[in-house]
Amino acid sequence: MASESGRNVLRLLRCAILVVAVLLTGSMYYTPSLRCLTQQLEPVHQEPLHVLVLVWLWPFNTTFKLDLCKSQFNVEGCLLTADRTLYGKADAVLIHHRDIVWDLSNLPKSPRPPHQKWIWMNSESPSNTDRIPGLDGLFNVSLSYRKDADISLPYGWVVPLEKELKHFVPPEKNKIVCWIVSNYKLEHRRVYYFRELQKYIRIHVYGDYFERHLSVEEYKEIIASCEFYLSFENSVHKDYITEKLFNALALGAVPIVFGPSRQNYERLVPSDAFIHVEDFPSVRALAKYLYLLHENEALYLRYFRWRRHFEAKTSSFPVEHACHTCKYIRQNKEYQVLRDLYQWYWDGSKGKDMPLFFY
């Protein structure tokens, strides 16, 4: 059977012969047959161009499967590799910021091919990202949770359900407020807020700092058993909203968020899906409101109305990020250089200072 492209070629040849006949004879006999010139040709199915992405530094020195782009994320034509001998053929080189050494000695030494783009990948907040010298002008594409990154992939999002629910019933609760934390530092503003909040309401605290490391199942069970979960970010920066929020949403707890502005959160999740500490004039006022919701089930369940229409998802770092690199490279051929990486990422993402009310 002839291919679609082959059939299109034959059809064009027939039309061309008819056109020549009309021009030579001046006859209108062939006019009805010339309709083929205006008929839409059969579309030719084209496989997506393959893009080769070289993972130069394993993020946090942890390997991941390189063949999941199509099966897990519906990204076709994406070839991921960690084979550095393919450097000269790679369309993009993916480099994780946290694994770059201070003197840049673990970056590629060979000249960069003209077609190749270097991808700067970072999912840490600016407060937890070292200003390594020499990065300005070195990379072509940014990959981050930031909305204004070239490749923007947040920590999570909400998606519509395939079938809407008439009712959503959250898991059974036996605790009011919980917090799972491993990076517990007294100088963090979230720790100050937590210590003041626990003066007015009991908070069940878990994590490496307080007792022991939790398994994945223990982590899920604890969050699901709590009415409210402290989704407190370790620093306040634009768009820095991590899995702490999306895990709570997915597991059926109401997140209490400490991070960027409410407006920033509302770009990613419904406004009635979470409680923002900035909504209250004081820590005491927040605690009073939590007790009100604890005692009034109807008011509490209002925070789950969105679950009838949506569900929360988290991104799969870093494999999903690598796959999205292929999509970007395929669709963006123009040349660019990140000449102001420091100014954009560090200085351009500062959130306003979170007010703390200790009364």
From TrEMBL:
<dbReference type="GO" id="GO:0017083">
    <property type="term" value="F:4-galactosyl-N-acetylglucosaminide 3-alpha-L-fucosyltransferase activity"/>
</dbReference>
<comment type="subunit">
    <text>Homodimer.</text>
</comment>
<keyword id="KW-0325">Glycoprotein</keyword>
<keyword id="KW-0808">Transferase</keyword>
<feature type="transmembrane region" description="Helical">
    <location>
        <begin position="12"/>
        <end position="30"/>
    </location>
</feature>
<comment type="pathway">
    <text>Glycolipid biosynthesis.</text>
</comment>
<keyword id="KW-0812">Transmembrane</keyword>
<dbReference type="InterPro" id="IPR031481">
    <property type="entry name" value="Glyco_tran_10_N"/>
</dbReference>
<keyword id="KW-0443">Lipid metabolism</keyword>
<dbReference type="Pfam" id="PF17039">
    <property type="entry name" value="Glyco_tran_10_N"/>
</dbReference>
<comment type="pathway">
    <text>Protein modification; protein glycosylation.</text>
</comment>
<keyword id="KW-0472">Membrane</keyword>
<keyword id="KW-1133">Transmembrane helix</keyword>
<protein>
    <recommendedName>
        <fullName>Fucosyltransferase</fullName>
        <ecNumber>2.4.1.-</ecNumber>
    </recommendedName>
</protein>
<dbReference type="InterPro" id="IPR055270">
    <property type="entry name" value="Glyco_tran_10_C"/>
</dbReference>
<dbReference type="Pfam" id="PF00852">
    <property type="entry name" value="Glyco_transf_10"/>
</dbReference>
<dbReference type="InterPro" id="IPR038577">
    <property type="entry name" value="GT10-like_C_sf"/>
</dbReference>
<comment type="similarity">
    <text>Belongs to the glycosyltransferase 10 family.</text>
</comment>
<feature type="domain" description="Fucosyltransferase N-terminal">
    <location>
        <begin position="51"/>
        <end position="156"/>
    </location>
</feature>
<keyword id="KW-0328">Glycosyltransferase</keyword>
<dbReference type="GO" id="GO:0032580">
    <property type="term" value="C:Golgi cisterna membrane"/>
</dbReference>
<keyword id="KW-1015">Disulfide bond</keyword>
<dbReference type="InterPro" id="IPR001503">
    <property type="entry name" value="Glyco_trans_10"/>
</dbReference>
<keyword id="KW-0333">Golgi apparatus</keyword>
<dbReference type="GO" id="GO:0006629">
    <property type="term" value="P:lipid metabolic process"/>
</dbReference>
<feature type="domain" description="Fucosyltransferase C-terminal">
    <location>
        <begin position="171"/>
        <end position="344"/>
    </location>
</feature>
<keyword id="KW-0735">Signal-anchor</keyword>
